[in-house]
Amino acid sequence: xxxxxxxxxxxxxxxxxxxxxxxxxxxxxxxxxxxxxxxWSNVSKTQTPYLKGVIKEKFQKSNGTSNSxxxxx
Length: 73
Known about the structure:
Strand order of the largest sheet: 1-2-3-4-5
Number of domains: 1
Order of helices and strands: EEEEE
Distance between the termini: 26 Å
Shape: globular
Strand content: over 45%
């Protein structure tokens, strides 16, 4: 059975400022690759709540670059 893509999100209880993500976590792909996820809570013009976020390569202190993908849910 294909496992699919697994996303795990947690409430961010360590927000350092207003722009910090509301939720953080990881996404794991079927090939085993793991990426970081950050999500922000938003409200549309029609007052519909939604999450907006980014998926980035796992943070590595020695490498200052990362690839990211913006996804609106």
